[in-house]
Every structure is written in C-alpha cells, then in structure tokens.
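task queued by scheduler; priority normal; single chain, no ligands, no partner chains; default sampling; output format set to structure tokens
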Amino acid sequence: MELTIPKNYRPMHDVRTTEKAIKQIKRFFEADLSNRLNLERVSAPLFVTSGTGINDNLNGVEMPVSFSIRDLTDICNKAEIVQSLAKWKRMMLAKYGFYIGEGLYTDMNALRPDEPVLDNLHSIYVDQWDWERVISPDQRNIAFLEFIVMKIYGSIRSTELMMEQNFKVAPALPNDIFFIHTEELEEMWPNLSRKERENRIVKDKEAVFIIGIGNNLKDGKPHDGRAPDYDDWTTLGENGKPGLNGDIVVWNPVLDMAFELSSMGIRVNRESLLRQLEITGTLERKNLLFHSMLLKDHLPLSIGGGIGQSRLCMLMLRKAHVGEVQVSIWPERMVSECNSSNIPLL
C-alpha cells in the first residue's frame, strides 16, 4: 500500500455533486471522442473463454480472475474476467464489418487482482473506454499516430472546458500536447528512473505523449511493459526509433505528479506480431485463436487504446484518490488514513 496525502486537501465537491459530475464527464467525453474519431458504441464482454488468447495478459505475469461454467461441456468450460479488451476489439472490427476510417468504442470493466500496489491511482477495478479503428497500410506511421493522439487530447481539453462551465473547475491543461520518444527521455536523463523521467518532462510540458513503450532502451530494459500481441513497439518510425505506440500523460496539479490517462497505439501486423512474440519468447501463442486469425490476415489493420474513465473523472474533479470516483476495495489502513485526511472514498 502506498498513499499520497496532498497538503491541506479539501474536495471541491461533495459526494452527491461528484456523482452528478461523473455522469456528465462520461457522457460528454464519449460523445465528443466518438464524433472526433468516427466511432460507434458496441457492447462488451465482462468475461471471455480461457485459452483463446483474446484476454489481455498485460505484462505477462498478471493472473486473470477465472471460473468454471457448469453447463458448458461442448467447449472449454473455463472463463476469465477481462483485464482489457485490446485484442477482442480488433476481432469485432472484422466481425461487424467496419471499414477504413470507422471504429468502435465500448465501456470496459475489468478486474486486475494482481495489481502490485494499491495507491491513489491504482485499483483492482479498472474502467475505461476501449476503442479501436480500422486503418490503411499507409497509415501505419508516427504521423498518423500523432494525428489521432491530438484528436483524443482535443476531447480531453473539451471536457475540461465543460467542467469549467458546469462545475466551476478552472482549466489546467495546455492547449497542445507535446510528443517525445522514450529514447529521447533516456538520452536527456540517463541517470533517472523511468518514473522520474516522466515526472520531469510532464511537469515541464504539462501534457505529453510518450512514444515507443515496450522496446528495450540502451540499458536493456523497456520504458514500461507492453504485451507483444497488440501494440506495435518494434516497427521503426520516421525518426528511425522503434515504436508506433505510447501513453498520454498529463500533470496532476493535486498530486503534483505525472498522471497517465491513456495507453494506445497502432496495432501489430503479421510481421511485427511474429517479431515481438520471438523477442518475448512467446511464439507458442501463434496457435491461439486471436493470433492465428491475425497471421492468416483475417483481422483488419487497426489503431486503438484505452482511456481511463475513473482517471479522467479524478483529474477533471481534482480528486486526490481514485476511490473518490469509483467503488472498490482498499486496505483498512488506507481507508482510515483517507477518512482522517478529508478524502471521502465511495
């Protein structure tokens, strides 16, 4: 357990006003995002069949919640709660017949019980807008990635302006988002940790898209972990640096730290999937349902990601703890410290 208590913290809104604001934030943002990216809302699963490769295995060590289904005898009768919908969305683009320039979004609710640390930002319950859009082969480049990032950031900024008008929350985000590669961060601050590098650049620029997460840096380790089978983190961009993915990170004025809102990227094609499976020593996944469909060119090229719903609400409402905008389970000591520090957990 780790907990940050902002000095002299007082919530801007009581619990009932907070709940009303959460509703408005979610409705406004998803409508604005779907309009900017040409996305249609679809229904999403809470669980998927085990052993298909559809569920997101995150960094490869997190174990999903699983259970048996009594009446399923003709197929694998074991299912698991989703950890994200990174691969499921791409399958739905094919199943529902989306074309280039079209896409989908959905409300994703996940459980991640292996979350290593519960703190102000991390909960075992994850809620996000998962989105995916069909792209053409010539859109698999950094320029197009940045184009989509700017559209998403535009929706974030518009939501903040709505909050100023409806809930008297003064805007804090800059007009534009800054782009930088993880290799550039390493060159700038080779002696700092990954998190320290993020804090330095985001405190300076206030809104940053950090490109190239998953591939090893010069010190032999990645900036952060990425599964090998959804984001493309090995294809070289126009700058000659690997990675067609990244994170949207903004400065959180309440917690005084870098604050990740979204993980996203251009997805693997056949070549980069095989390359990344080999790099991570997971070539056995080739025979799983999702992977075999991709290798047989049965799935469209796509770009996609997830945008944290509770994270966005937390930022927009200037909350100190994610438990102020979502209901979860927390260590008793954390609940006690929050109660004594004017942090009302839902």
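post-processing summary
- The domain at 15-339 is CATH 3.30.930.10 (BirA Bifunctional Protein; domain 2).
- The mean pLDDT is 91.
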